[in-house]
Amino acid sequence: MISQEEADTEETVTCLHLTFYHPCQEDKMMFRCLNFCKREQVRADEVAKFGRDSNICHYNLLDTRVSRIQFSLQFYRKLNSSESCFEIKNMSKKTKLIVDKTELGYLNKIDLPWKCIICFGDYQILAEIQEGEAMDYFETHLHLAQVPILQERCLPSLQPIPENGFSSSSFSSQGKNPIEIDENES
């Protein structure tokens, strides 16, 4: 029997949490091939591919509007650092991939932010990286969203607030519409 002092240190594993949303998921069941039940291990030297072609992609989206390979994720470690990262690459010739506010054309790639929203067509995917120490593999944990992810995040409104400090929404709630006046009028 091995004592606690002699046992190997348990290493934490980097986990990529992906939450999927599509407005027609109830009707079209495009996520039925994804495993939402448990975490899956992916070898560090494998490229995680998402798309329609089950012969090439491990993560299948059953939708004819999705490219055979829509996008790929590559796990790597930064040079001279223990920080693990993912690189996302758009593999679709027809559809642009949007990562937060960055638009990627065919074969464009960027580092995946630790928390971001990936969009293409009507698909929304919330990606969150949970940092770990293991270098031989990482895990994916897939989730299914019932409401749009962009709506769920409830980002603050970026509408400007007028100099008087009242937004037009506070006027509408009082049953009045804002009146546009020239700043030179008194």
UniProtKB/TrEMBL annotation:
Keywords: Cytoplasm, Immunity, Innate immunity. It is found in: Cytoplasm. This is TRAF-interacting protein with FHA domain-containing protein A. Coiled coil: none annotated. The keyword Cytoplasm applies. Residues 49-121 form the FHA domain. Belongs to the TIFA family. CDD domains: FHA_TIFA. GO terms for cellular component: cytoplasm. One of its GO terms (biological process) is positive regulation of canonical NF-kappaB signal transduction. Pfam families: FHA. It comes from Indicator maculatus (spotted honeyguide).
